[in-house]
Amino acid sequence: MFKLLKYDFYHLRKTSKFIVFPVVIILFAIISPITARYMNQILDLALADSGIDIVLTDPVVLDSYLQYIGNLYETILFVVLFVGVGFFIKDKTKGLLPLVLSKPISKTKYLLSKYISLNILILVSLLLGYLVFSYYTYFIFNEIDMFGMFLTTMLFFVFTIYVLSISLFTATHFKSYLASVSVTFGIYILTSMLTIFEVSIFKYLPGFISSSSVDILIGEEVVGDVLMNVGVTVLISIIFIFFSIKKFSNQDI
After folding, report:
1. What are phi and psi of 197, to 5 degrees?
2. Nearest Cα to 115, choosing from 227, 237, 205?
3. Which residues have C-beta within 8 Å of that of residue 213, sequence separation ≥ 6?
4. Closest listed residue to residue 180, CA positions, set 73, 245, 92, 86
5. What whole-number distance in Å separates Cα of residue 130 and Cα of residue 152?
6. How far apart are CA 170 and CA 78, in angstroms?
7. Burial readout 122-135 (b: 16 or more C-beta within 10 A, e: otherwise)
8. pTM to 2 decimals?
9. What is residue 58's predicted lDDT score, i.e. its pLDDT?
10. What is the pLDDT of residue 231?
11. 67 and 35 in contact (C-beta within 8 Å)?
12. Would you state the pLDDT for residue 147?
């Protein structure tokens, strides 16, 4: 397993994926507090000649938090989705899978190595983003909820675990990148749409993790609900991984 992880990290270092995540996340970590602080001035300039008069409240630190969370779930998550599918299906689409598995390699360890290595890269990138965001937010707003933002970062990482488990599942069940991405995106959209239904059992589904993050930052979280949300998300992720391994193990390569 260690040798497989070493190989996958070597592959990541040789490609743009190794710098895509940290660069994109750090970029939004810098932009988010700046945007939150100066959005009113930007809107004033944009509407100066339109005759539209809008009264805006002064920005507060919560605006910076919400801006960053929005960027995580609206932009960075899609980078995770598209890059994740490509990373998992690369050997198959390039015809390298028979060569790789011709060696005495466990199919289960092969999949888990790819899944774990990409998750580690994303986790490190998110922690770097968390530190950079905390610094710039404190510099601009003179306050920062370090613990709340750490929990928010970890919740987003749990959600990326879920999205990558779907990516792994589709990559093992489909032969093309386009089909895998489409199905992964479809499942993601479906889970997001379930958040509009006011059904108590739905509040523990993965799509509610972003809401849990906001609740933590505004001090309205219910610890039991957050833990259930995380537990259900991890459980669903494990199910996707299990069926990915089962499918891949039964395939003739």
Report:
1. -90, 130
2. 237
3. 69, 151, 152, 155, 156
4. 86
5. 9
6. 16
7. bbebbbbbbbbbbe
8. 0.89
9. 73
10. 94
11. yes
12. 94
The secondary structure of the chain, three-state, reads CHHHHHHHHHHHHCCCHHHHHHHHHHHHHHHHHHHHHHHHHHHHHHCCCCCCCCCCCCCCHHHHHHHHHHHHHHHHHHHHHHHHHHHHHHHHHCCCHHHHHCCCCCHHHHHHHHHHHHHHHHHHHHHHHHHHHHHHHHHHHCCCCHHHHHHHHHHHHHHHHHHHHHHHHHHHHCCCHHHHHHHHHHHHHHHHHHHHCCCHHHHHCHHHHHHHHHHHHCCCCCHHHHHHHHHHHHHHHHHHHHHHHHHHHCCCC
How far apart (Å, rounded) are the C-alpha atoms in residues 81 and 239?
Answer: 18
Contact by Cβ (8 Å): 67, 140: no
Averaged over successive runs of 10 residues, the pLDDT of the chain (253 residues) comes to: 69 74 92 84 58 64 92 90 88 72 77 90 94 94 92 95 95 89 90 72 82 87 87 94 89 67
* Contact between residue 2 and residue 45 where contact means Cβ atoms under 8 Å apart: no
- Tell which residue, 68, 208, 72, has the closest CA to residue 144: 68
Distance CA 130, CA 119 (A): 16
* Alpha-carbon span 246 to 33, nearest angstrom: 44
Which pLDDT score is estimated for 65? 93
Angle subtended by helix axes 146-173 and 223-249, to nearest 10: 20
Exposure of 67 by Cβ count < 10 A (0-12 exposed, 13-18 middle, 19+ buried)?
buried
**Nearest by Cα to 27 from 162, 109, 125, 115:** 125
